[in-house]
Every structure is written in C-alpha cells, then in structure tokens.
Automatic annotation (TrEMBL):
Subcellular location per the Swiss-Prot or TrEMBL entry: Cytoplasm
EC annotation from Swiss-Prot or TrEMBL: 2.7.4.8
Gene: gmk
Residue intervals passing through the bilayer: none
Catalytic activity reported: GMP + ATP = GDP + ADP
Main location, first listed in the record: cytoplasm
Source taxonomy: Bacteria, Pseudomonadati, Pseudomonadota, Alphaproteobacteria, Rhodobacterales
Gene3D superfamilies: Guanylate Kinase phosphate binding domain, P-loop containing nucleotide triphosphate hydrolases
Keywords: ATP-binding, Cytoplasm, Kinase, Nucleotide-binding, Transferase
Coiled-coil region list: none
Record's keyword annotation contains Thylakoid: no
Family: Belongs to the guanylate kinase family.
Listed name of the protein: Guanylate kinase
Recorded GO CC terms: cytosol
NCBIfam families, A to Z: guanyl_kin (TIGR03263)
C-alpha cells in the first residue's frame, strides 16, 4: 500500500502510534522498518537507566541516563510516561512528542504495557493508536531473544519469565498482530497506519489526503 505523501497530511495533530510486545517479539525491528518506509514518522527516543548494548548509540536508540537524572526528569513532569521494566527505568520524554504533534507529525513509541496504558490515559490519549505484537509461539520468542545475541542467559530467562505477564495485556490494544513473517507484519503495520491517517481526516469536509486525490482525478 502506498504511504500518504507528506504534503497531503493533516497538519494539525499527529498520531501517537504505540507498539508493545513481550521482549524479543520484534518491535524494534518493525519500528526500524516503518521509519525507513516513512522518514517523516518520528521515533520517540526513550530515556533509560539500562546500560547500552554493543552498537547502541546515545540519543539514537535511547537517552542513557542515571537513576538520579531519570527521577529528576519525572519529578519535573518531563516524562509523558515512565515505568520500571526488567529492573531498569524507561520513559518517553514529553516535549518532543508535543512538538511533533503540533507539526502534524506522527510519533512511534516502543514501550511496554505500562507505557501503553499511561499514554492512552494521558491528555494526549485521544490521538493514540495502539498495536500489540505477539510472537508466533513462546519457544520462537526465546529463540529470537537468543538469536539477537545481545543479552546474557540470565537476562533472557528473566525476560521469558515476564513474557506471559506482558502478553496478558494484549486485549487493551486497538490492534494485535502475530509477527510470524516479518514482511507480512510490516505490510499490516503500514496498512494500519494508512487507515488510521485516513480516519483522522474524517472531519467535516475533506482532509488534505482525500482532497489531493480528488484534485488529481479532476473532481
Ligand atoms: N518475524 C521475525 N522472524 C524472525 N526473526 C525476527 C522477526 N522479527 C524480529 N526478529 C528477530 O528477533 C530478534 C528480536 O527482535 P527485536 O529486537 O526487534 O525485538 P523487540 O521486541 O524490540 O525486543 P525488546 O523488547 O527486547 O527491545 C532480532 O534478532 C530480530 O532480528
Ligand atoms: N514504559 C516504557 N517502556 C519502554 C520504554 N522504552 C522501552 N521500553 C520497553 O522496555 C522493554 C525492554 O527494552 P530493551 O531495549 O531493554 O530490550 C521493552 O519491552 C520496551 O518496549 C519507555 O520509554 N517506556
């Protein structure tokens, strides 16, 4: 499906696209692919107290920070949401999200179920579209965590232990995708994003995307 050209987007309010899943189901991989497909989509770079993995770049994958600095940001109200996940703190900085929304740019979040709940329950929640990504099976989830080659056996065991609890929140989400074939899942995500952008335009009168289509047809 074609992506909506930037110049035809609704320019008033961006969407908040929330991706959640048990660790290792493929959120970051899918998020990366979506960003390549639509470079205008903004990725919400989270702050975390977790140590960087090999190859992770500060400011690109995460804002790596200390627990003290993280708590100060929370106390100052600078986090849209935050949670403890697998023993570390993670949170989504608020200001870049609001700036993107005001520019009409959509923001993509890779957050756990607690983050999903907090964003949906926030003042910006009316603009949220939430998607839960399931692995095809738990053994495949474990295989993926191991194949990623970045976590110790102890960390993998801890994440597998928490996977059922994360999965138990699937029904809180607008969409649920089983990430079996990566290309197919990416295509479904694109379709969801395109449909939700069109839905956002269903205001009185035609939105910019539909208006552009009509003009092309000479209507
Ligand atoms: N559909 C798929 N089929 C096979 N392997 C996949 C698929 N999707 C992702 N993977 C692989 O699974 C591993 C975990 O994926 P990824 O890091 O994207 O998961 P994640 O959900 O972002 O994990 P975390 O929550 O820990 O950040 C990676 O090695 C990735 O290449
Ligand atoms: N509530 C939030 N959860 C977040 C955020 N950023 C990432 N995450 C989730 O943490 C786990 C582990 O991530 P990893 O990079 O250490 O593998 C994963 O489920 C992410 O979705 C956040 O800002 N808020």
């Amino acid at each position: 499906m074609d992506r909506i050209p930037t110049e035809r987007r609704e320019t008033r309010t961006g969407l908040l696209i929330i991706l959640s899943s048990p660790s290792g189901a493929g959120k970051s991989t899918l998020a990366r692919r979506l960003m390549e497909w639509d470079p205008v989509l903004r990725f919400s770079v989270s702050a975390t107290t977790r140590a960087p993995r090999p190859g992770e770049v500060d400011g690109q994958h995460y804002h790596f920070t200390t627990p003290e600095a993280f708590r100060a940001l929370v106390d100052q109200g600078q986090m849209l949401e935050h949670a403890e996940v697998f023993g570390n703190l993670y949170g989504s900085p608020r200001a870049p999200v609001e700036a993107a929304m005001n520019e009409g740019r959509d923001t993509l979040f890779d957050v756990d179920w607690q983050g999903g709940q907090q964003i949906r329950g926030s003042a910006l929640g009316a603009h949220a579209v939430s998607i839960f990504v399931l692995p095809p099976s738990l053994p495949e989830l474990e295989r993926r965590l191991r194949a990623r080659g970045q976590d110790s056996e102890q960390v993998i065991a801890g994440r597998m232990e928490k996977s059922r609890a994360e999965i138990s929140h699937w029904a809180e989400y607008d969409y649920v995708l089983v990430n079996d074939d990566l290309d197919e899942t990416e295509a479904k995500l694109r379709a969801i994003l395109t449909a939700e952008r069109l839905r956002r335009e269903r205001q009185p009168g035609l939105g910019p995307f539909v208006r552009g289509l009509m003009e092309e047809q000479g209507a």
